[in-house]
Structures are given as C-alpha cells and as structure tokens.
Task: inverse folding
C-alpha cells in the first residue's frame, strides 16, 4: 500500500465552505490539494465548514 509523503502538522484558518485537504503529501500548497496526487492511489479529503475555523491538519 502506498504511503503519503511526509508533511508536518499545520494549523490553518479556513473560511466556511468546502476545502479539499491533501492526503498524499505531494501538494505544493499543503494542506490544500493542488492536484499533485494524480497518478497515485490517494484522493483529497473534503472538509466542509459552516463557519470560519482554525483547524489543525495532521498528516
Ligand atoms: S495533492 Fe495530495 S491529495 Fe491532492
């Protein structure tokens, strides 16, 4: 099974709405998916927020 590339935990403030979170670790805009997972078995994770929040993203 493929393993994601190593990334550090990050704390980000996100506005309400849907955010696509990188699970492969290859995004150049981590923690946001930038399409770098193409050609891998990974898919981004949809994070839906109803209000602005600061969240900790842990790979
Ligand atoms: S770039 Fe990592 S899941 Fe899309």
Result:
């Amino acid at each position: 099974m493929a393993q994601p590339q190593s990334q550090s935990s990050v704390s980000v403030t996100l506005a309400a709405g849907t955010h696509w979170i990188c699970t492969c670790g290859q995004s150049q805009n981590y923690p946001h998916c930038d399409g770098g997972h193409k050609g891998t078995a990974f898919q981004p994770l949809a994070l839906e927020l109803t209000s602005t929040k600061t969240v900790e993203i842990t790979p």
In short: The chain has a mean pLDDT of 92.
